[in-house]
Amino acid sequence: MTGGAGAILICIIRTISWLSDLWHNQARWQAQACPFSCLVLPGLVLEMMVANAHTIDMKILLIEDDAETADYIVNGLREQGHVVDAAANGRDGLFLATAARHDIVIVDRMLPGIDGLSMVKAFRATGLQTPVLFLTTMGGIDDRVEGLNAGGDDYLVKPFAFSELLARVHALTRRAPVATTETTLRVADLEIDLLKRSVTRGGKRIDVQPQEYRLLEYLMRHEGQVVTRTMLLENVWDFHFDPQTNIVETNISRLRSKMDKGFAAELIHTIRGQGYSLRVPE
After folding, report:
1. Distance, CA of 215 to chain centre
2. What's the pLDDT at 61?
3. Where are the domains of the chain?
């Protein structure tokens, strides 16, 4: 084999390897140095390879109840080479969002079954960090803030140009890769299964009410930290005012009786004058 032919073969091997890595890692064309510069291919072949490498298809979930809008978005995304799953209500959307991996979730705020805000809150409660883009006719500042606080990453007001939707999708997916999905929380022998929404301690199942579950999950996600009454009201009950009730104290007391009673170590502690903390005693 001549030196020139050997060099071409090496470049072909490097190119195939590069394209394979590009496909599996879903990196962007601009994110890696392309080895094509060492190989002069016929124009048509090179153009086809570049086009295929540039169009990295994503798996996208669209949750939109308006059929016309949904068709418009789905068709546009598929024309761009993306794989699109679609749901027409919040319940089906939540099921699809938690049952399979997606690169981005596009959610309409006003959905039947479960509204978009509640769906995204439930989605985030499972620990999933997939980027979420809200679509809505509600364009006020308070509406945008509410959507972002619910777990959204971006907000697009209807009506919109498809080019802007596509640009926002690409911007969101250019961010750092999604971390491994967290499905359990553990503190000592206390464990929450985020998918089954079940609680066990020392291998023993503990029955909790929905509000108690949310309270316990918040405490466990802030293990070792002091969380104030105001933080619990805002993040567990979604109260942004003082309801002038002992709702926090009552639920903490109930959790203590279920989580700590009968076990050697108490995990839920009251920090006088500050709040509460879930931690393993020293």
Report:
1. 21
2. 95
3. 3-54, 59-173, 184-278
- CA dist 256 and 195 (Å) reads 23
Assigned token pair, 208 = 């909790």
Which secondary structure element, helix H or strand E, spans residue 212, and what is its range? Answer: helix 210-221
CA–chain centroid gap for 75, Å, is 24
Domain 59-173 identical in fold to domain 184-278: no
User: Kind of pairing, strands 59-63 and 275-278?
Assistant: unpaired
| Burial (Cβ within 10 Å: 0-12, 13-18, ≥19) of residue 60 | buried
CA 46 to the chain's CA centroid:
37
Exposed, middle or buried: residue 190 (CB in 10 Å: 0-12, 13-18, 19+)?
buried
Percent with pLDDT over 90 in the chain: 40
Helix axes 116-125, 90-99, angle to 10 degrees: 20
Q: Give 76's pLDDT tier (boundaries 50, 70, 90).
A: very high
* Domain 184-278 belongs in CATH node 1.10.10.10: yes
The angle at the Cα of 170, spanning 102 to 58, to the nearest 5 degrees, equals: 35
Give the per-residue pLDDT at 226.
Answer: 92
Of 244, 245, 220, 215, the C-alpha closest to 231 is 215
pTM of the predicted model, to two decimals? Answer: 0.47
Angle between helices 247-259 and 210-221 (to 10 degrees): 80
Q: 195 vs 138, 175, 277, 278, CA distance in Å? A: 31, 25, 24, 21
Query: Worst-scoring range by mean pLDDT, 30-39, 148-157, 189-198?
Result: 30-39
Tell me the fold of 59-173: Rossmann fold (3.40.50)
Angle at 189 between CA 124 and CA 223, to 5 degrees: 50
Could you say which DSSP state residue 227 is in?
B
